[in-house]
Specification:
The complex is a heterodimer.
Chain A (H helix, E strand, L loop, with lengths): L9 E3 L6 E7 L9 E6 L3 E6 L4 E7 L6 E6 L5 E6 L3 E6 L7 E6 L9 E6 L2 E7 L6 E6 L3 E6 L10 E8 L6 E7 L3 E6 L4 E7 L5 E7 L4 E6 L3 E7 L5 E8 L5 E6 L5 E6 L3 E6 L5 E6 L5 E6 L10 E5 L4 E4 L6
Antiparallel strand pairs in A: 1-28, 2-3, 3-4, 4-5, 6-7, 7-8, 8-9, 10-11, 11-12, 12-13, 14-15, 15-16, 16-17, 18-19, 19-20, 20-21, 22-23, 23-24, 24-25, 26-27, 27-28
Chain B lengths: L12 H12 L3 H16 L3 H12 L3 H14 L3 H8 L2 H4 L1 H14 L5 H12 L2 H19 L1 H6 L2 H17 L2 H6 L1 H17 L3 H18 L14 H9 L76 H10 L3 H17 L1 H6 L1 H9 L10 H15 L1 H12 L6 H19 L23 H18 L23 H10 L15 H17 L6 H15 L5 H17 L2 H7 L1 H17 L3 H23 L3
Helix pairs in contact in B: 1-2, 1-4, 2-4, 4-7, 5-8, 7-9, 8-9, 8-11, 9-11, 9-13, 11-14, 13-14, 16-17, 17-20, 19-20, 19-21, 20-21, 20-22, 21-22, 21-24, 22-25, 23-27, 23-30, 24-25, 24-26, 25-27, 26-27, 26-29, 27-30, 29-30
The chains are: A mainly beta, B mainly alpha.
GO molecular function (chain B): Hsp90 protein binding; telomeric DNA binding
Family (chain B): Belongs to the TEL2 family.
Main location (chain B): cytoplasm
């Protein structure tokens, strides 16, 4: 008989608003404290100390507009946040500083989360939805120079870009971009030439979130319908649908694959977080804690496998932290 | 006291005289506590001692017989002991027979159940005495089934008689039941009718239990009568009386699923407990392919059987709710709407005010479409929410509907409950700016008759009296609570006066003064509560005057629940109307009421009525005292 699903290891309260984005930074050595960054609808970014489960710092940099993306750029002192005030802020949190050091004005009023990729020491690529209607712009940070602007061809009718993922096969090869659009298709872009390499219609509804496993060249996308779509990239850089998985309730807001590529988590509009095995998409668990839509899920980057955590942030102002399948 | 056995002829009459004299002087306990255990031991096996004992009791003069018999019946530990001590005294001695069969059972009711068991067991143990047992049962049933007895005798006596009937039934043999089957049936039918007619739930329950027991006795094969009532200690105790330990007795089966009896012989039907198979929760793990082995298999799935589709969402706007409730065929949506309605009403007062009367109408007629849990409570809370959001028009509507044609009694009583709950909510001062969601914490008031009402009133009266006493201590030890305006004051009249207006005008389907006295009782209690909540409002004097007139008109009503309500009304008037107004505007009514209260305290058969009347008289005394002590 199967065990009942586990309870959250702990629950972080105190954001005071719906939680839209989460990001762990736990890779540091002792005495560095593992932290979790959370961005909320009231414009605050909270830095949670995972040892005391309390907020260490609160960052206010987006003029009380919702923060919907938070990422770290190497270590927990360099933070990037994106908010609905059309800005992407860069922070330096060393020595307790709490003001943004730099910002990028995106002129985009959408909800598309930006994607970061480290290409060299101190050099990052960031893909974000840009000013134009279906455009994605790739910038190099911290210089803020534009690398390319990806515009779909006229008549493609892809709609807004909904989610982005920058990746590269291994350390030195060309970075590529996977973008999910409003019309339900996932497009693979070549950045150096600014061209579409492959396009695949995965859903009938907008693609809400996607994640990609570069080792196996397999990705997964979720939308507002009841289907999860798993697609793969073959040697010719073509996207093909690998399989689809029907869900119990419609609506996925976020998908995350664990760094060890064993399991993945989906954040659902039905208040539940679902865990699947990545290899065969075997349904493993349904974590039912939240009382409103779960907006985001994130896996931690702990060095020790048994310390790994999963965080889920929801509209009910809570962040639940789970320790699940940590033995593998 | 020591007797020498042997062939000696002793005259025991002296001892009997002594015994009788002692008992009649009230010393039964002392003498019998010594005598009875000794005699019990001695008479257990020895015939001679038995006869001596019988002779002893028989020789007690008639004028002391009652005391002696009573003492014996109370002191002995069991019916068989009583039998060996008294022998056939009841057959031989007329006075003893009278005491045992009439006085102890029908005229007195203070004895414990053990005494009844002793008595009736004693009657059943001997063939000569069994005839008396049957006679006793018939008389008990006659009392039990007489409607005037049910209406006018105190509940304690009725409980005593019911217990006696049950014990008698348990002693009867099959043959005896056969002979008096017809009588049992007739009295059962009559008795059940008068018991169920009563307003007090305790009486109703007693009637139900006794009727069930009689029915189970006379119809051992075939369907038995079964009522639905709440089980509690009292009912369990009563039911246990029916099962006696003597081996030949048939254990009645109250389970209504044992209908397969053999027609001829009357087999002892043993109680079978229905053991429904315990359905374990199904455990599903979807898509488990055990065939293939791969590294994913070391990830053991958790139990996902709780993962179900989300229920449909309730509408977010009031007008949508109205649409769903009136027309929708989709039962899921209907159910979700019913659950969400109260909070929606409270969150959108402006929108609710636009459609308040329509919503109230819909809610009043709302029938349960699906088996929703707590449907009655949800509906009631939604009605209260509508009423508090827009009191005047909705109160007007509801009070007019109370007196309209073609409503069921349940709906009329719902109207009363809703009015009371809303009045309570409105009169509770809410701190300004905070909208308190009453939510699940607020219990629903059930204006249930019975001793609860008097206890509550006593508590309330005590609190009020305490609060009215003057304190000379200085300084405020408590922080002042946040106060808000009393919203009930502007609408109290709208709640109260329409209800009191038409009570004496009978309609074809609704006659308050006639058959529907249960609703009348509830109406009276409602008026009492509304009066109580109207303290510190402007209309309170007019309400008080009208209420006293109303009480005066109904004061001789035969139903004790109605009378309790009327007395509560008087309490409310005395507590809510300011004293000066009471004395200036209502002097004659107060005087008349006072004389009526005095009458009730002395002559009313119902204990609760007497208690309430006494409380009211005390309140009046306090008022008078307060006036004389207040320096003018």
């Amino acid at each position: 008989m199967a065990l009942p699903p586990p309870d959250p290891q702990f629950v972080l309260r105190g954001t005071g608003a719906a939680v839209h984005t989460l990001h762990f930074s736990c890779g540091g050595q002792e005495p560095d404290v593992p932290v979790l960054f959370s961005g909320s609808e009231n414009g605050f970014i909270h830095v949670w100390n995972l040892k005391t489960h309390r907020v260490d710092t609160t960052l206010d940099g987006h003029g009380r507009r919702s923060v919907y993306c938070v990422e770290t750029m190497g270590g927990k002192n360099k933070l990037l946040s994106q908010g609905r005030d059309q800005r992407i802020c860069l922070w330096d949190l060393a020595e307790g500083r709490t003001s943004a050091t730099n910002s990028v004005f995106t002129e985009n009023v959408g909800f598309c989360r930006c994607s970061l990729l480290k290409v060299a020491q101190g050099r990052w690529l960031m893909a974000m939805a840009a000013k134009g209607p279906e455009e994605v712009q790739v910038l190099e940070l911290p210089s803020k120079t534009s690398v390319c602007t990806l515009k779909p061809e006229v008549g493609a009718k892809l709609g807004m870009p909904m989610c982005l993922k920058l990746w590269q096969h291994d350390g030195d090869s060309q970075p590529l971009l996977l973008a999910g659009y409003e019309d339900g298709s996932v497009v693979l872009w070549n950045l150096s030439m600014g061209k579409v390499l492959s396009q695949l219609v995965c859903h009938q509804e907008p693609v809400m979130s996607l994640d990609f496993d570069s080792e196996k060249a397999k990705g997964i996308s979720g939308s507002s319908e009841k289907v999860l779509s798993i697609w793969s990239l073959n040697e010719q850089q073509n996207l093909q649908v690998y399989k689809t998985h029907k869900l119990v309730n419609a609506g996925i807001s976020d998908i995350a694959i664990r760094p060890d590529k064993k399991i993945l988590a989906t954040a659902g509009w039905d208040h539940r977080v679902r865990i699947f095995g990545w290899k065969k998409l075997k349904a493993l668990a349904v974590l039912d804690y939240h009382t409103a839509t779960v907006h985001c899920v994130s896996f931690s980057d702990h060095k020790h496998p048994c310390e790994r955590l999963l965080a889920a942030g929801s509209k009910d102002h809570r962040i639940s932290i789970w320790s699940i399948y940590t033995q593998t | 006291v020591c007797f020498i056995p042997g062939g000696l002829d002793c005259s025991i009459s002296f001892v009997s005289h002594v015994l009788g004299k002692v008992c009649v002087h009230g010393r039964q306990k002392e003498i019998l506590s010594v005598l009875v255990p000794r005699l019990t031991d001695l008479t257990k096996s020895d015939c001679i001692w038995q006869r001596i004992c019988w002779r002893l009791v028989e020789c007690v003069p008639d004028r002391w017989m009652e005391a002696v018999v009573l003492g014996f019946v109370q002191r002995t530990s069991g019916a068989d002991v009583l039998s060996s001590l008294l022998g056939n005294l009841v057959v031989k001695n007329k006075k003893a027979r009278f005491v045992v069969t009439q006085k102890l059972l029908l005229l007195q009711y203070s004895h414990k159940t053990a005494v009844l068991q002793n008595l009736l067991g004693y009657l059943s143990l001997d063939g000569l005495r069994r005839a008396l047992l049957i006679q006793v049962l018939q008389e008990l049933l006659e009392t039990w089934s007489s409607s005037s007895a049910v209406k006018h005798s105190p509940p304690e006596q009725q409980q005593y008689i019911s217990k006696a009937i049950l014990i008698c039934l348990s002693h009867l043999k099959e043959s005896e039941i056969e002979t008096c089957r017809q009588e049992l049936l007739t009295s059962m039918m009559e008795g059940v009718k008068c018991h169920l007619d009563s307003n007090l739930p305790q009486i109703r329950r007693l009637g139900m239990i006794v009727a069930e027991s009689i029915s189970s006795k006379i119809n051992t094969d075939g369907p038995v009568l079964k009522f639905q009532y709440e089980e509690d200690d009292e009912t369990r105790e009563l039911k246990s009386l029916l099962v006696q330990t003597p081996p030949f007795c048939v254990v009645p089966s109250l389970a209504d699923d044992d209908r397969n009896e053999k027609a001829d012989a009357v087999p002892p039907v043993v109680l079978e407990s229905n053991k429904k198979p315990h359905t374990a929760a199904p455990v599903m793990s979807d898509e488990e392919s055990d065939a293939e082995l791969d590294s994913d298999d070391d990830l053991v799935p958790y139990d996902m059987s709780e993962d179900k589709e989300l229920k449909t969402k309730a509408p977010v706007y009031i007008r949508d709710c109205i649409e769903v409730l009136t027309g929708s065929e989709d039962v899921d949506k209907w159910e979700a709407t019913v659950k969400a309605l109260e909070s929606l009403i409270r969150k959108n007062p402006a929108a609710t005010r636009e459609v308040s009367v329509e919503l109230a109408k819909i809610l009043l007629h709302l029938e349960e479409k699906t088996c929703t849990e707590g449907f009655v409570e949800l509906r009631q809370r939604a009605q209260v929410a509508v009423l508090t959001t827009d009191p005047i028009p909705v109160a007007k509507y509801l009070t007019s509907q109370f007196y309209s044609l073609n409503y069921s009694l349940r709906q009329r009583m719902d109207i009363l409950d809703v009015l009371v709950l809303a009045a309570q909510e409105l009169s509770c001062p809410r701190p300004p700016g905070k909208t308190k969601h009453s939510g699940a914490q607020k219990p629903c008031i059930q204006l249930s008759p019975g001793s609860d009402s008097s206890k509550d009133w006593r508590r309330i009266v005590d609190e009020r009296i305490k609060s009215k006493t003057r304190r000379f201590a200085t300084g405020q030890s408590q922080v002042e609570l946040a106060s808000g305006p009393n919203e009930f004051s502007s609408v109290a009249g709208h709640f109260f006066f329409p209800l009191i207006q038409h009570f004496d005008r009978p309609l074809t389907t609704f006659d308050l003064l006639g058959e529907d006295h249960f609703v009348l009782g509830r109406l009276v209690h409602t008026l009492a509560v509304l009066m109580y909540l109207a303290v510190n409002t402007v209309a309170v004097t007019a309400m008080g005057k009208a209420l006293l007139e109303f009480v005066w008109a109904l004061r001789f009503h035969t139903d004790s629940y109605v009378r309790q309500g009327l007395l509560s009304c008087i309490s409310s008037v005395l507590l809510s109307v300011p004293t000066e107004r009471l004395l200036e505007d209502m002097t004659e009514e107060l005087l008349e009421t006072q004389s009526w209260l005095g009458d009730v305290v002395e002559k009313d058969p119902d204990g609760d009525c007497r208690r309430l009347a006494l409380q009211n008289l005390l309140l009046m005394e306090n008022l008078k005292k307060k006036l004389t002590t207040v320096p003018s």
